[in-house]
Structures are given as C-alpha cells and as structure tokens.
What does this fold into?
Amino acid sequence: MNTPLAPTLDVSSTPRTPLSRLVGVEIRKAIDTRAGFWFASSIVGLVLVVLLIYTLAAPDAAKNFGDMLQVAGGVLGYFLPILIIMLVTGEQSQRNGLVTFTLEPQRSRVVAAKFLAGIALAATVMVLAFLIALVFTAVAAATGATPEWSVEGSLLFNGFVLANLIGIFVGFAIAMLLMNTPAGIVAYFVYSLILPIAAGILSALSSGFEKIAPWIEFNTAQTPLFTGDYQPSGEEWAQLVVTGTLWLVVPLVLGTLRLLRIEFK
Amino acid sequence: MITVDRLTKTYGAFTAVDDVSFVCQPGRVTGFLGPNGAGKTTTMRVMVGLTLPTRGEVTIGGLRYHDIPNPGRHVGTLLDASAQHVGRTGREILAIAAQTMGLPKTRVDEMLALVGLNDDEAGRRLRNYSLGMKQRLGIAHALLGDPSVLILDEPANGLDPAGIRWMRGLLKGYADRGGTVLLSSHLLHEVEQVADEMILIGRGRIVARGDRESLLAGANGTPVTLVTSLDNTALGAALTHAGHAVEPVGPGLRVQASPEQVGRTALGAGVVLTDLRSGGAGLEDLFLELTSADAREAVAGLAAPTTGGLPA
Ligand SMILES: Nc1ncnc2c1ncn2[C@@H]1O[C@H](COP(=O)(O)OP(=O)(O)OP(=O)(O)O)[C@@H](O)[C@H]1O
Ligand SMILES: [Mg+2]
It folds into this structure.
C-alpha cells in the first residue's frame, strides 16, 4: 500500500534515547517505590546491625578490618542480587514492561541499562558497606582490640567485589529467565544456600561426587576465591570457567533471549 | 499515519488477527470497533512492537516502530492503563516516562492539569487510583511526548460522562491539528460521534469499514430513521404508502428511509413531528450483525474509502 502522498514521520529532531539516560531511569525505578527504597536501605541497615553485633560478640583477635569486610560482604552477597531481581522482574510482575518497552523498543538496550543500573546500585551499596566496616574497625580499636587495618588486595577484590558481582550476575540471569519476583528470589536462595549444602552433603557421602562437585557446582568452585591464599590454582580456575559457563553464561544468554522475545501483556 | 498491511497474528492454531489491512490518515480519527476478543488489542500491540506479527507488517509514517528513535515523541500509546507499578504515584509514573523521553519536568504538570488530576491525586499511589483516574493518567502518559500519532485502546473505559465528552473534544482537536488518531472500543455510540472513519473487526477479520453514512448505506441500501409525531398512525400509513418499511418502537416509529424522506412524507400528510432522528440503532444493528459469531466474511458492497487495499 504505497500511497504516493503517504506522510512520513520526521524523526530528525529526536535522536535515539542515550543509554546513560536509560540507566538513570532504571536506577530511579529501582528505588522510587516503597519496596525498592526500603529494600535498598535495609541492606545498608542490615550491614550496620550485623557488624554491630559482630563487634560486640567476636573475640578481639577477629576484629581486623579484613574480618569486618568479610562479614559485610556476606550480608551483601545474600541481598544485593535480590535488589537486581526486583529491578528486572518488576517489568513483568508489575506489568510496567508494557510501557518500558514501548518507550524503548530496542529491548537489548533496556537489558543493558538495567545491568549497568544494577552494577551502579551495587557499587554504591558496596562503598557504603566498606565505610561501615571501616567505622566498626575503628570502634573495635577504640574498645580495646588491636585490629589489623591493612587488607590483602586479593581478599578485598575476590571476597568483597568479585563475589558480590558474581552474585549480581547470577541474580540478573535468574530474573530474566523466570521473569517473576517471588520465583526469582526463591531460585536465588536455592542456588546460593541449598545447592552448596547439598553439594557438601553429597561430597561427604561419596568421594566420587566430591571430585566432580567443583566442576558442576558454582558455589563450590568459587570457594578458592575466598579461602586460603585467595589464589585459585590452574585447575581451580578451569573449574570456575566450567561452572561459570554453566551457571552464569548459559542462563544469561537464555534469559536475554527470553526477554527479547517475551510478549509483555 | 498508520499503515497496517496484511497483518496476521496466530497463537498456535488460533488466528487472533487474520489478514487485516487498513490505513489511519492524519487529520482524522479512526475508530476501531469490534466485540470482545475480535483482535483490536492484538493489532494495536503489533503496531508498537509489543507483539511480533506472524505475517504482514505495520508502519507508522513509513517506519517500523522499532526504527523510530525515541518513539514516545512520535507515537502516544495507551494500551492498558493499569499496566504500571502499583506502588508508584501518578506523578512519578509520568516523571519516569518524561525522563526516558528527555522531556522537561514541567511537561508532567502540564499533562496532569490537562487530564484533570489534581496535586493530591497525582501524589497517590496507583493502587489507590479509581478506574477513571487510571484511565486519565494513561491518557496523560500517551500525550506526554506531544506525539503526532495516537494509539488508544478503549480510552473511554471507566471515564465518567463528562470525561468521555472531554476526551472526544481532545481527540477531535488533535486530529484537527493534523494528528493521526486510532481508538478502539466495543461501544459503537462512543466512537461514532468522534470517528471520521470506522473499521469494524470481528474474529480477527475486518468486516466493514467506512464513515458512518457509507456504513449505513452499505448495510441494506436504506438508512434508518426514528420518528415521533402527534399522529403516528397517520404518519405510519403515509410512510407505508410511500413504500417505506415501518415498525413501531417505543413512543414512535422506526422507518427504513432517510430523515429527509420521512420529513417530506410528514409534510405531505400534514402530520406534526416532535422528534426526527437518523437511526443510530441502524448502525448498532449493523454492528451486531457484522460482528456476530458467524459473520466472518466481509459484507459485500461496503466501500473501503481510504485503503484501496483488500476488497472489504
Ligand atoms: N498470548 C496469547 N495466546 C493465545 N491467545 C491469545 C494471546 N493473546 C491474545 N489472544 C487471543 O487473541 C484474541 C484477540 O484478543 P484481543 O485482546 O486482541 O481482543 P480485543 O479485540 O482487544 O478484545 P476486547 O474488546 O475484549 O479487549 C482473543 O481471543 C485472545 O484470547
Ligand atoms: Mg482489547
């Protein structure tokens, strides 16, 4: 139907929405609801409370800055991914995907924006947690302990930054695959709590399984990153790559493909 | 302008939209009418890229929706006013859209004022909105980017009578300024007063199209008139004598003739008319007949004034 006088849309005055603006919108969407705001604030609050309890209860010898960071990182590890899951699944669970993807029909750009927004939020929370850990180390020093202030770079990076980033990526992948908030949160806890326990029990029962566990279970494979000398061996790196592909890359790819095709109703 | 070209959408073995072609012209309001499940929403979702067509395509001003940069600035869409995060306030919902489109914050307040949501209401969360308030917010959302094309799925849904009248004026004004407006409805009388052209769809197929007059004329060759007079018996006899089919309805008569023919007959018979109306009921009947379960084929003889595409 090529009507000769078919009026065409003059799009010269409206450039494509810049990615930075989309990232800004996604950050705003993550914290502009009561649920989102309180969840993000409670993560910081929880770090505060847990570190307070830790400072009161732990023996003086275990109040080094590195210990504080590890505790804070543990708290973040459980809750940061949920913030990301809520950010992604909200489009479907709260149905605002209809509007999001009408305003930006290039869905891959929205996925990228969410990903970057998630990392930006996580970085903010991590910095806050880092500062809180500093404060409580100072408290420990003021209350009689003689904490070690220096931290090993690999502990800081592996145990705090990398571990949390991996958790965020896994949460992101799970969220896109399931596109449902409660299911995403449950799946993340199954992945992060139940799977490693199950792998531990099976490994204890069967030495055969103990050998293959680090090749198939991501949490088990990550252990060398956070323990010992924080320097995974060559074989351990290979295990990380194999399980990372299985638990991270494959779900991320499938989840992205799903999000690109899903019919938002 | 919106061009729907041989659009088909199937879900498994079920065909929701079946080889549909039509054009919405700028400067006109196009009404998209059909009963529940006819395929109106599906067609509109394909227009904005939320649903992928099985066959055929839709272009807006010559572009596929995906290829329009910052599409909210060109195409205003209202598909489902409740498809928003219920925990956000009305103002925040508009602010997010304005930020995405790169619009100044003042635009949000302008739109809130335009659709009649006051400060207090704009600050409530969507879960506490009434149906009509959600709808007004949805209309504000569609108008936010000052688009030249409007795609509105049942915009009158939940609006009070004053709101419906306001919306009619708004859409007319929009079209008069050169905008392209497509609105869907299942209520014929809601659309016929504002639409310059109507597309009737039933079970995924277009069953008729045209303006009000050509639809009526095409129905059975004769328009329908409702008339009430001081002497219905005498008028009825005169009309029958003149060869028009007459049946009593309510306080008056329903005549298969134009209002002019009825008026002339009354003049000749010397009967005083108290009410003379073009029979909207004729269109209503036509609509029901065309879109009833077994009316899957197009009605012969109906013109397709703007498309020159398929024989309707
Ligand atoms: N994802 C889907 N899977 C299967 N069937 C679907 C799907 N989406 C829509 N349909 C079917 O397509 C048909 C057309 O639906 P659509 O929503 O377009 O109707 P409509 O004309 O908008 O109706 P209403 O006036 O009730 O809003 C319906 O029978 C609907 O059940
Ligand atoms: Mg519908």
Q: What stands out?
A: The interface with chain B takes residues 1, 3, 6-9, 11, 14-17, 21-22, 24-25, 28-29, 32-35, 90, 94-99, 101-106, 261, 263-264 of chain A (CB under 8 Å).
